[in-house]
Amino acid sequence: KDGLTLYSHDIRIQKNSFDLENNLGVELFRRGDVNTALSHFERSVTLQPKWSISNNNLGATFEKIGDIKKARFYYERATQLSDYYLAYENLAMLLVKNDAPEDALKLVNIALSKFPQNGKINAAAAIVYYKLGKETEALTFARRALILGPSPFNSQLFQAISNKTLDK
């Protein structure tokens, strides 16, 4: 029928499967059942602590419920475990949103060396450079983000940096 049905069924049969726990968590998260998703992501990380995907998903869940400290911990852990691009995207945006521009600058430079064609990481770099008062660099990254990932967000970001109306 759907992923939720499949993973809910399979997890009753295969009780110690880190990937089933993670996949069920994803389905629940997408449906807005964040608290139940959290327990499945935690179980996945317990079963396989070195899997970056479930660490990243746990970070996203903590971010969703407002626990920024734990979100940052799990995003950082995911980036240390592997080069999972989504963990870098999530951590970069978390740092940008929570006024840690110096930390974000270090991270986006590392992330851009690994994923130079990633639109979201370029967008995060644009915001970081803008917040640090480096408007020329910010505009370059905003333009690159828009080219790599044309989206309303990247278009608005480019316009805000061009017009110098982005909040610092």
Give the structure's gist in a few sentences.
Helices cover 78% and strands 0% of the residues. It is built from 10 helices and no strands.
Notes on the protein architecture:
With 168 residues, the chain is mainly alpha-helical. The protein contains 10 helices and no strands. The chain has helices at 3-13, 18-30, 34-47, 52-65, 68-81, 85-97, 101-114, 119-131, 135-148, 152-162. The longest helix has 14 residues, at 34-47. It is elongated. The termini are far apart. The model has no long low-confidence stretch (mean pLDDT 95).
Question: Structural class of the helices, strands and pairings?
Answer: mainly alpha
**Unreliable parts:** none
SSE order: HHHHHHHHHH
What would the average pLDDT be, to the nearest integer?
Answer: 95
What integer value in Å does the Rg equal? 18 Å
Main beta sheet strand tally, sense and closure: none
Enumerate how many helices there are, as a single number: 10
Strand fraction equals under 5%
DSSP strand count:
0
Portion of residues within helices: over 70%
Distance between the termini: 47 Å
Describe the global form: elongated
